[in-house]
Amino acid sequence: MKWDDLFAILPLVVISTWAVVLVLVDIVIPRDRKGITAALAALGLIFALYFTLPQYNRHLVAFNGMVIVDGFSAFLNTLFLASGLLAIALAYGFLKRNNIDRSEYYTLMLFSISGMMLMGIAADLIIIFLALELLSIPLYVLAGFARPRLDSEEAALKYFILGAFSGGFVVYGVALVYGATGSTAIVEIIQAVVAGKAAMVLLTIGAALIMVGFGFKVAAVPFHMWTPDVYQGSPSPVTSFMAVGAKAAGFAALLRIFVSAFPYLSVSLVPILWLISALTMILGNIVAIAQNNIKRMLAYSSIAHAGYILMAVVTFGKGSAAIDAVSAALFYLLAYALTNFGAWSVVIALEKSEGRGLLLQDYAGLGKKYPAWAAAMTVFMLSFTGVPPTLGFLGKFYLFRSVLEGGFIGLAIIAVLTSLVSAYYYLRVVVIMYMQDGEPVVEGDIWLKVAAGATAVLVVVLSLFATPLLQWAAQATLQSGL
Amino acid sequence: MSEYLPIVVLLILSAFVAGAAIALGHLFGPHHPTERKSLPYESGMTPFGPGARRMPVRFYLIAVLFILFDIETVFFLPWAVVFRKLGLFGLIEMLIFVMVLVVGFLYAWEKGALEWE
Amino acid sequence: MLLSDVGATGFQFFALVPLILIFPLLGLLINIAFGSRMQEKQIGWVASGAVGLTFIISFLQLVSLGIHPEGTVIRLADWITIANLNLHWGIKVDTLSVTMMLVVSGVGFLIHVYAIAYMHDDVRINGDPSRYQRFFVFFNLFILAMMILVSADNYLMLFVGWEGVGLCSYLLIGFWYDKGKDGIGNALAGKKAFITNRIGDFGFLLAAFTIFGLFHSFEFDEIFPQIKQVATVLPYGILFITVFMLLGVTGKSAQLPLYVWLPDAMAGPTPVSALIHAATMVTAGVYLIARSYPFYAVMPEARTLVSWVGALTALFAATIAVGQFDIKKVLAYSTISQLGFMVTAVGMGAFTAGMFHLVTHAFFKALLFLSAGSVIQGVERGLHAQLHHKGGLQEDHHLDPQDMRNMGGLRTRMPTTFWVYLIGALALAGIVPLAGFWSKDEILLNASNIDKRIYWILAVAAFFTAFYMARQIFMVFFGEPRTDAVAHASESPQLMTIPLIVLAALAGFGGFLNLPHIETFGHWLEHTIEYKPLTVLGEEMPPFSLQVAGMSTLLALLGIGIGYWLYYILVQKSLRGEPQAYKDPLESALGPVFSVLNHKYWVDELYGVLVIHPYQALSQWLADVVDWRFWHDWFHDTVIAGTFKKGTKLLAVQIDLGIIDATANGLARLTNWSSGQLRRVQTGYVRNYAMAVFIGVVFILGYLIVILK
After folding, report:
1. Has residue B73 been placed in a domain?
2. Residues from chain A contacting residue B99 (CB–CB below 8 Å)
3. Chain A hits for C689, Cβ within 8 Å
4. What angle do CA C682, C683, C686 make, to 5 degrees?
């Protein structure tokens, strides 16, 4: 073991150690002072962030090719840690309000984040699977965090069972890839293929099964069916965290595996990915129209956005276009993360106990009574739709451009058309807020307001000064590890 | 492939034994089915309610805890095999592993998961 | 030549020439902006001053031309620049245009001054003093347009002026638009003038377009040098231009067959008749031919046509003038007749003679019209005094102050007017040494050497001219007053009589501009018009012929003598001191023939039957049958609107409701249905979700197995 190895996993070590210690520390924290745990968790995230930042512009292969530190991983790890901070801000008041302010939320989240971060740097299929489980299992528990609420428990169980089911596909795929190439390390897989020692049929099927597993994680059609039920049933802060973190981690794995390890499989796999991406965009957007429950609507919206980001994976065999697409996908993930947390913060502010206050109709009159919340929600809806001047617009713009660069015109057309469809249900929220009369009640604590305000401002301001952000994403390239 | 042969032999043998036991019973046992006999076995009681009953969740909790600690102790076995090769690094690693286990144990204890009430 | 170059070439006033446009423009702008707050005298003097200054500038051009007789072109602005078409607005300063400028601004100035006093009374007689300001605005606008016309260096700018003066003519004929027969007669007269002129303008435009088509330019200086060459290649093109230009001339200069508007134009105030419909605007046609002389120089056929049109008009109008009772109508037909003389002259190629007659005619005809105005207002003053005197007796209230039968004996009551009128009449009749004699004699001299038939036509016309003028003089000024109003008539104010005296002097001595053998005017114009007519024998035109001069003098004296006998001696005898029993002796002598003359050969009626009624019937038919019933009722309502309604109904019911709405509703239903289906799929059962994943995997693996063989 070298110091470089330690440096590579330092943020991960920090966050997991912090989580373990927090479990112990929490034992001595009084039941009515769980705010301390939240603050400590946030502190741990900030620490980890502090250790992540030096990883920019570094390229390290550590632990004999099991992990790799590059711009891609640093970008994603920053995103995960920031997501954790926002998830804490969203959860603190919500948990208290719903009498579920258990400190396990924070520790589980830290564990999940450590799994996500491991996903970001993983360069070996075994590590990738390990990361997948590490990030998933705390999420299963978090989904059921609103216990004894039945829908929460149901969500947890469904998520767990289906997650395990799809995890099986990943393992199966990894096994097949190992069988085909004799290795699970991405570097060695590439070498095997280049040397012509790989069994291509097995490798292709293995790759397809891995794709299925992560397709489940990012909620791609037809592996998306858990999403509405789980998103609706889970406590809203968990849903928001799940929608960003799990999705980003899933895409991290997909991009890492497919772009760096399997580019030569594009001939056989691209049609499948193309179809999955198209179906995901179409189904997510169209079914979202029919939803009355905002959590369900956002669930389908997250499915739709998964479809957009999947377009970046579709280009995985296109060389330079793939590199651009990875940058575009990262940028899109960032935009989606900020917008998503913002939107969920508004949802949380309006949510009442027992799952009330979640219908679209409950947003009527928000524009009059709480203009600031309504304005923030408008910004998020516009960003989801992809209307300038928001990050969502830039995200879509760069993503669609890279897809066109990759030559997938049909896919880009579907993406644009479904974006138009999406305007219907996003703007309906705006219409209801401003055009209809109602008596909404908002219970926003200070952290929720900070989260909503900060994300709203960032969504707009960053879109106006997007150049450094874009450069940042452009530098976040994947390194093959060779 | 020859090294897998004993496993195949074992599989066939176990399948044969299990199958033989059921088959022999069928072949030589008395066979007088009545309506009452073909009902599910309920220890002589008249069956009522759904077949699947609710059970106290503690059973599951105990089972999960058992699996957790049981499987994790299994990790000691390969470690012990290569203990000398790994040296100090391996010792520290295992200490960390045990520490994590202890934290989990303490957590479970603190949460009262080990109390049957 | 650019403005800046002009000053550099020495002592020249050419640079000032834009002022001839700016002064009238300033005058009318001042009167528009401040006229409502100014007194009548101020308005009148602003307008007159503007024209007076224009005259001074024009005179300065004359001075400069004395040094540089070749003239110049001052380019004011670029007008239209499209591809190869480069039109600019230039002012052509040469002897021809400056002649016109001097006449227009000089006579115009006198008429303006006259109008200050005349309109003061006129607006009160007609009962609307607020129109005083408008009159002078229009008057200045006319001067501006006329200046644009005569100063244009290209046909398009000339056309701008041409239309501008037409507009002013229309505005001023209809100046009392709510007066006249049935309260609309004046407006109809204006309309008639405008429409008739439009026909002529149509000819002008065709000529201009043809010019552009052949020469790719509108500019005189670019066109004229090429004409000879083009004429050899495309003689019919040139003929086309000249004939259509003639159509324009017949409209503007009131020649056969488009002269009919001019008598009606007398509905305008008398200064308008003097300035526009006698001295200046109507001569624009003559100017146009003179300006376009190179076309006519190479086209003898066109010249013949023009001279015949002019000669016939001259005789035709002169005979009609004999049968008129309205003092202004007589002068109007006289104007048409004299314009015929000018057109004949330019048609024969005697451009100098035509222009010379134009100038002298401007003097004496303006004089006659203004004097007639003075007479009319004298009678009106008498009418007013008489009404005042008798305490509002209404019997003569509807007396026509322009009807010569109501006059008589004004010689003693309006002596100044009588004397200037007499000078004008004698000048017009062609009595030595007044202006009309010299100019008319020159035309007759040319005619006698070119075409005897035309000469005799013109000679007869000259005889009639002398006769109707004598008739007018004796009817108006001699004998006893035939009405009380005339008996109470009084002399006009000095502001009117002074311009009359100045004009009388010009009418008396204007002929000396171009005395035979000296020919100041002829040499002056030679710098611009290089063409000289030849006799039928191909010899150079003799400067003077005693035979021709004697003949025309004889005819004039004969006309005057017959007039004297008929309208003085005979009338005095027949009346025997009972002036009210006055009857035109010619009317009783000629009977139906006089009626024909009085009714102007029924030309208006003939036009009515031949053109106007068929045209109106056609319009009626087009409007009622074609436009309303066919186009509007059938085509528009039934075909278009009906089809549109059917189409929209089809679109609305079948397409929109049937297809689009159905599609939209269908989509909504499909969404509903699919969400229903999806709800069935989205069972909430984990096993079904797992099944979906499994099916997806099966499909993917199946696909892969197929493509991987």
Report:
1. yes
2. 20
3. 158, 162, 225-226
4. 100
